[in-house]
Every structure is written in C-alpha cells, then in structure tokens.
Amino acid sequence: MSDIPGVLEGAIPPAQNTKLFGHAEAEQFLATSYRSGKGHHAILVEGPEGIGKATLAFRFANHILSYPDPASAPEVIADPVPDSAVSRQIMSGASHNLLHLSRPVDEKTGRVKSAITVDEVRRAGHFFSQTSGTGSWRIVIIDPADDLNRNAANAILKILEEPPKRAMFLVLSHAPGKLLPTIRSRCLPLKLNPLDDGNLERSLANLGVGVPDDKKTELLTAARGSVAQALKLLNYGGADIIEAFGAIMSNTGPAARKSMHKLADVLSQKDSDTVLSFFMDYASEELIARAKAAALAGDLHTADYHARLSSSIGERITIAQAYNLDRKQTVLSILEEMQR
User: Fold this and answer.
1) CATH: 3.40.50.360, 3.90.650.10, 3.40.50.80, 3.40.50.300. Which one for 14-191?
2) Can you give the pTM of this predicted structure?
C-alpha cells in the first residue's frame, strides 16, 4: 500500500515505477522527437485514467534529464536505473529540475483537495525563475490538467504562451475535451489507448497482483484496459459496487429502496473518496450507454434525459463535497433518477 496521497492501494507511484507496458509506440515517438532537437515544448498526453500516462511522463522526464543534450540521447527510452543520480532524485521527489503538479493535500483535513489551485501553479512560476545549477532542462508534469481550477488553468496558460528556454511541459489529461481550448492549442497531443488484456495482466503482475482464473475474464472486461480500474475492482470493492448497482436497477419497490440505502451508506463513509469516484465513473458510463441506446431507438427524450444526468453526476458530488452537504442523500437522488 502506498503512503503517497492519491496513489491507489497496491499501485507503484509513477515516479518510482520502472516498468511501462503497452505504450512502446508513444515512447518511441517521444524519444525520436527529443533526439531530433525539434520536439514541442508542451505535450498533451491523453487517455483514460490508469493506463500509464503519468508513468510515461516520469520515464520521459528521466530520459531528458539523463541526456540533457538531445543529439547525444539514445534512440529509445530505457527503463530508469534506480541507483542512478537522476532516478534517485526523481523517485524521492528531490529533483531540482522536475516539478510534479497535482492536487495538494489540505493541511487542515489531511485529505487531497478537489482541484489543483492557482497557488500550486505559482510554484511553477517560482520553479522556472530559479536558475538551474546544471543548465539542464526544467520539466513540469501536470497530473492531471483536468483537475486545474479555472484560475489555475489560466495561470498555466500564461506560462505556456511564453515558455522559458529549455522548458518542457508534460500535460496529462483523462478528458482533454474539458480543458481550455487555448491550453490544448498550445500542446502537441499524444494519445494513449487503453491497455489490451495481455499488457493489463503484465502491468498487474508487475505490481504483484494476481487475478484468479475464474474471475479473470470478468475483471479484464470491467477494467477496460485500466490498471487503476482493476485495482479499484480488486482492492476497493468495485466488483461489489457493480453487483449492488445491478441489483438496484433490476428491482423496484421496497427491495430496491433498501439496496439503494445500503449502497449509499458504503459510498458516503469517511475516506470513501476512491469508491465514490469509481461509482461516479461507472454510473456515468452506464448513463451514456443508455443515452446511445435510446438515441438509436429513436427515443430522443429518454436519450437527452440520460445524457443530462450523466453530465451532472460529477458536478453534484463536487458541490456536495465543497459545501459539506449530505453525501448519502446526493447518491440516493442519483440512484433514484437513474432507476426512473
């Protein structure tokens, strides 16, 4: 289990992960573009959560800082060597040439905040204002940029518009369509696809996670090519949540109401942010699937209803958390609307 906030139980923090599976083509593109000396100063690494975007970003950062002269860099990105000076600094978070921006921990509550704030982005400004003692590159990993609040996004945009010399931005995004168009326009997009079953199994094996043969097909299907999703299914009761959700949707009356309350109790417990996020994603995807099916059947009213409900789930949960509203009641209302 990781002690780093925001890292799932059973996962290796991306800065410390020396293995990456399923993205050889993307790695080769980065290595080739860097070696050419004509690489873009900002790369938008796109793809679903948990497929290796952050691990790829740290591997590329290690590659750049290990070979600051592009012309002398190898043609491929090798696995980081843990006992090298660059790797030790990156893995411990002590590199003066790499800044990792993510949602900060609230000092009062000890919990990870809901957004990357403008104060975090100001760290990037200070980071670039310092002269590198080695004359090396300065690299900022934004993980993920989806979590930037509006002020933070605008602050990042100003830096992207006039980047310092030998600066590199690795902008990670689970949903690039939600980013400011002006941020997207200043980045070179690099899309990563979900892992196939073989690479997903190899990624889990690298974490020491074994999947029982009798549950393998079910797990790989539900994980949808995401290591994070697989860990939530295995270590956070995600499979039980899916089963409970299915029972609620297939029942009516008192039985369904009882099941709703039971699931809402689980999702509203203290320190349940991970399972709540899992439920939100699953419910949203279920609604999108319903909307598509209704649209294909010509029922545009039902399609619109499901599409609107899908887009509102995340916002409603965020508001409940921000204003300390009853999380259980919020979940119940979502379940009731989905059942209708």
Assistant:
1) 3.40.50.300
2) 0.90
